[in-house]
Amino acid sequence: MAWQRALGVLLFLVCAPFAGGLLGGLDRKLSARLQGRQGPPVLQPFYDVYKLFHKQTIVVNRLQDFLVGGYFIFSIFTGCLFFSGGDLLLAFFALTLAEIFLFMAACSANSPYSSMGAQRELVQIMSYEPMLLLAAIGLYMITGSFFIDQVADRGISAIAFLPGMFFGLVFVFIIKFRKSPFDISASHHAHQEIVKGLTTELSGSELGLVEVAGWYEDVLLLGLLALFILNRNPWSILAGVATGLACYFLLVLVDNLFPRVRWEKMLNWAWAVTLIFGGTNLLVLALVL
Amino acid sequence: MENGDVMTIVAFLILFPFFAAVVLSQMKKPGKARDIFLYCCSALIIAAVIALTADTLTAGISRSYLIETRIWDRIILAGEFALMVLVFYYGFKFRKYYVVLLSAAQTVPIGWMELSGRSVEGEVHITVDNLTVIMCLVVGVVGSLICIYAVGYLKDYHRHHTEYRDRSPFFLSMLFVFLGAMFGLVFSASLTWMYFFWEITSICSFLLIGYNQSKIAVRNSFRALWMNLLGGLGFALAILYSSLVLHAADIQDLVFLGTAAGSRAVLTPVALLAFAALTKSAQMPFCGWLLGAMVAPTPTSALLHSATMVKAGVYLLIRLSPLLRANVAGMMVTTIGGFTFFAASLLAISQSDGKKVLAYSTVSNLGLITACAGVGMYEAVWAAILLLMFHAVSKSLMFLSVGAVENSTGSRNIEDMHGLIVRLPKLAFVMTVGIFGMFLAPFGMLIAKWAALKAFVDSRSVLLILFLIFGSAATLFYWGKWLGKLVPVIRQSERLPDTVHKDEWTAMWILTALVVLICVLFPLLSTRLVQPELIQMFHIRLSAIIGTEDVRVMIMMLCMIIVLPAVMWVLTSINRKKVVPSYMAGVNEGDDRHFSDSLGQPRQMYLANWYMEDRLGENKILKPSLGISTAGLVILMIVAIGGAL
Amino acid sequence: MKLSKSPWVLHYDGSSCNGCDLEILDSTTPVYDVERFGVVNTGNPKHADIFLITGGINAQNAPVVKQLYSQMPDPKVVVAVGICACDGGVFKDCYNILGGVNKVIPVDIYVPGCAVKPEAVIDGLRKAAELLDQKQKQMKKKRAAARKEG
Q: Domain C3-149 - what CATH class?
């Protein structure tokens, strides 16, 4: 068991940045094709990060480094925790800690755009956190444990019992992946109403770290979606990966279809979906189990 | 240690603070003598509490004492009438006749019961078990630290507020009266004794809120008084019912009647006691008094209104928790608690006054403890006790640091704390630790909330789960906002002179260390202190709720948080980076504070937090919350008591 | 891997009539698609490698242009798009126009036109990207030399 965990962590540490970057590249390519353009090469995110690490790093204060470093380390830590089969709820709490570090990094710059992005980021976290917790609770209720290696070892895939939770999770992942219509705090698009939002005052290697941490996080999130499909059958791993990718491309499609909405709408819809889909699923489980 | 020695410590802890209070009230002249006397008293109390803890941990059993009580019963009865006279005096002086009525309505029947010999002679009057020790640690250690803090704080408070009469000896002595009352409350096994100390705490709160004798302070103190007296009325009715009808004199009797003997009639006093606890812990719809109590000087807010007095209510609920499982009284407690947690978290978002945010946060966390106690099962009560401990430490630290900031900068508005990390770095650091301790992993409150969540899921309380997850998200928002206000590094900010007194720093640094320490030590606390208590209460033994692997991961996280700044410091000093102004569309005046407007004139930039007043403001959701909770409380009380009668 | 594979752009309008700006926008649209070269329009100097300026320099925008340029990390390239940015264009003799962008910051690439054709914009950006690579090589040499001395 221990070697399995170590293998999981190692695979994650080494492969996730490549997988995440590739996903980002595919995202941009697909978006471009949907818009009738050619789009950048699929390896573009790697070129971007390479460039960032070779630029001069300019900072607004000395505190930024520590906070961005904290975000980077805790994002990776969360992923390692997840892929070593650890406690799902603790992984979510660690992820929240990472997000708070990024938030503090944006606030520490005392810049108008950065602060706006930070406040919006906080609203985003408030919007998706209930659903994340509810998904973990759902998995716990049908498995009897928060530990991921036990959830993945079930006889029947979790999604059979948790369709509402799965749908709610995919919905709030629009926010988590920073896709339209809920990419209000920092976006890869050309919307510049708050310039670059959260990352406005970061540059060079700091920005590169944020990008790479984002890749780790993307892989973690897709892993969470795959977790709903995994069961004792080893073929389920393939099915899980396929589901994760399918959901990701669904999100890219949604990204290209919908314009950005105001934060009030985002909060309302996220909480409504959480309550209706997640809450109903929870109620059914509580009554039946 | 001999039984006699333990009883000596108990008596010391209850009586010595009263003695210290009398001495302090006579030391009218401010000066070193008074300060040192107070420090010594606090140190003695802390030492006594630690001795008691050590003994209980080694002895491992809970002890109960029946002492020769005729004299003490008479003294307590006299004390109750004295309190009633005090309330009458103030009620008539300020023409608030409702408090007169409330006080008479409860003291007279109790007096009649005692004097006409109808009260029941209980088996025990003093209990010392693990839960008592936990409460003693909270009251003794945190309370004493706050008293030490108060010495320095009051000096600055009166220097800034020359319009208020300096009644420092009165204030400091009341703090000790309160400590004594709290010790009395947690040591009491008998209901009547607990009731007496409960009333003392209500009066202390009333007197301390009205300390500066301004109009608004007087008004808020009477609001606190009537709400707490209303709870006291419930308590008195519960005592009357359980003495006259059930012939039960203390809580253990009630628990036995309700669980082992399966009596349903016990639900009536339980519901009434729960009502009293809900008022004392400022649950909806009674949260108004706690909000109003924030006009008092900070040590009051820290001691009474976050760390200790309001914990008396949830302490009572925890004692009653075996009786709250799967019945209407329990449903009342969990619903009110859960709803309060959710609603108060939302309300905290719209506040910018630091103390009001802390007040709503206190109400909200107390709601969570209440809900956990109301579930009435092992896991939930484990979470409740842990929440109690962690909250007392973190919240008192927050209040103390906000008070210190208010004295240093003149404002306790969060908007004015912008960039505190440069202006007052030590205070900002302490406040940051406090905020981290309130909602982030791997610190205590998060652990306890995690346990609460697990307990709710295991008991299939769907409503509580929903309240917890949505309230949790709102909690993250208002704490995150505050954190975001502390960290901006504003170029060329002046560092303000550190005018915080040594005793204030002592209290704050010790509490900061405690926040980290109890996070590290919580597995030990759980196995040595909390779990034995729960085994005794619920007669089952469960494995650790948060497993060793999780604990290992959390310790790892804690180490990373501590080591990270050091590592980054080393890395950044190797690599000098260019510092540039922040981006303001190219019109930054160069100081990061001003930008050039379209006519070329410098304009000040102002960054504010989001308060969402039009959606979550008090004028939007406070009244509906109070309405819903009142309706819920009344209906459930009627069902609980009516069903039992 | 080269820096030229990921040239991020800061597009600033000094005092342009917006003709050149619209053509720059056009170059991001499907027919011309400058993103296939990795070009992203970030509105943020701290993220940008290439400073794309249109319009002439006047007293009001001179300090702004200087500030934006100073907030860009090295290596950076300035591209003056349109004849107004190159030397003032039609407005060269106006009393408010100081001249082209090279009056306040060093310009590396000039893309004349009124308005500039999107193809010319793309050509200018390609050349700017190549220049980025050269500048990076120079930066590396300077750093190595400084380390040897220090």
A: alpha beta
